Amino acid sequence: MEASSRWRVTSSVGGRFPGVDPVFFKDRSRVAVATALAIKIYQLNTKQVVAKIPIDGFDISQLYLTSDESTFYVVRGNGNVDRIGVLENSSVRLSFSRKIAHIISDLESQITAVVQAPEGLGIAVLGSDNEYDEIHFEKHADIFALSHNKEHAAFAYRRAKDTIISCVNVPARVVTKVNRDRRTHSIAISNKGLLAVGAPTGVIDVYYSKGIRTLKWHLERVQALFFSSNDDYLLSGGKERVLVFWQLATDRQQFLPRLDGDITSICSNTGNTLYGVTLANKQLLFLSAIELTSRLQVAGTKAYMAKNPERERRKRKKAKAAEGMLASDFTTQFTIHPGTRSVYMFSDMQTDEDSTGPGCQVQIYNPSRDEQEGVFSVAPTIQQGKVRKEQKLPDPDTTCLEFTHDGKYMITIDVTPPMPVDNLMSRHDLKVNLRFWKQDPETNKWVVTTRVSSPHGAGKRVLTVCPSASSSSVLTASEDGGVRMWRPDESTGTWSVRKILPAFNLKSKAVQLAWSRDSSVIALGFETSVYLIDAQRFKVHQVVPNILASRVRGLAFMGNYLAALSKTSLVIWDIVAHHQLWSLGLEMAMNGNRLMTVDPQTNEMALVVNYWTNEYSLQSKVLIFDAASPVPKAIIDNATAISAIRHVRGTSSYYFISTRGVISILAGAVAPESANKPDLQSTLSTLYVESKADYDDMVLDEQVDKVLNFNSFDKVFDGDSTNLDALFDKVMTLIAS
Amino acid sequence: MISPPFELLSLPNVSVDKLIRKPICVDRSNFHIGVSQSSVTTVSLRPSRVVGAFSVPPSVDITAVATDGKKDAPIVVYATNERKKHFLKIIDTQISQQLKKEVARLHFFNGCFVAIQSDNTMEAFDAEKLESKWKRAAKKGLSYKFSAMIDDGVCVVISSAKKHFVLETLAFDESGVRELKVVEIPLECEVGKFSYSEGVVYRCENRTIQLYNVPDATLISQFDIQGDDAIEDMIAMPNNNICVIQNSVLSIIDCSYRSTISKCELPSGTSISLLSYSPEAETIIAASAKTVLGFTVTPSSGTLLESIGHGVAAANPQFTCGHCDLFPSLIAKNSFVPTLLQNIKEAQEASSKILHALEAAAKKKDEKVFLKVISYLKGDSWEQAQPPSETVVYEDTDRQVDRDLIKQITYLVFSVTLGSTTLSYLPFLPNSFAIYLLTHPLFPAGEPEMKDLFTWLKAYPQLYRQAIVTLSSASPEDILGGLLSQDEDIFHDAVLRLEEEFGQQQITLAIQSLFNRSTDPEELIQVVDRLSKSPDGWALVAPFVDSLGLLAWDKANLDKLQNRLQAQLESIQSAVTTNRLISELFMSVEIDAEDGKTISNGEIKRRSKKSQETDRTRDEPKFVPKYSVETLVIN
Question: Which ranges carry the WD repeat-containing protein 75 second beta-propeller domain (chain A) (predicted)?
Answer without folding.
Answer: 361-635
